[in-house]
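Hey, resending since the last one bounced:
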Amino acid sequence: MTGTLALVCCGGVLFASGTALLMARPLTRILLGIVLIGNGVNLLVLATSGAAGRAALLYPGSDPGRVADPLPQAFILTAIVITLAVTAFLVTMAYRSWQHSGNDDVPDDIEDIRVVRRATYAEERERLRAAYRKRRHEYRALARGEEEREAREHSAYQRLGTARDRYREMRRRARADARVFRARQARAEETAEEIEGEDDPWQTILGADR
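The C-alpha cells again:
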C-alpha cells in the first residue's frame, strides 16, 4: 500500500510538472514536459493496475498470487516507445527551429492572431456602438428637452405679446375716452360761459316791475 501511494504521488508530481512545462513557449521545455507527462502516466498506470490475475500458463507448484500482471507492463512498454518517438520528433523540431531562427520559441500562429484581433475588434466595435447609441439617446433627449423649452418660451412670448396688445388697446381706448371727456367738459364750460355772458330776457322784461 505504501509503495502504491508513493507511485501515485510521484506520478502526480511528474504529470503536474510536465503540464506546467507544456504551457511555455520554448520547444525545449515542451519536450521536457512531454517526457515528464509520459513518465508520470506510466507510473500511474503501474500504480492503478490492480491485483495480479491467474496466468494462462503456470509451472506446477507456482503461486498465482506472486505472479505479476503483465498487461500494465505491456502498456508501459508501449507508452515508453511512443514517448521516445515523440521525444525524437520534438528534438528534431527544436533543432530545426534553432537553425532557422536562432531560438526554439514557438511563435504565434498568424491565423490565431487574426482571429484574436477580429474578436478584439468586434468587442471594440460593439463597445463603440453601445457608446454611440447611448450618446445618441442622450442627444435626442437633450434636443427634445430644448425643443420643449423653446416651445414653452414661444408660448409664453405669445401670451406676453397678447397681453401687451390688450394693454395697449385698453390704454388707447382709455386715452380716447379721456380726450372725449375733456372735449365734452370744455364744451360744457364754454356753453356755461356763454350762458352767463348773455342777458336774461325775463330780467329785461320784468326788471322794471320788480
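The chain has a mean pLDDT of 79.

Sorry for the duplicate.
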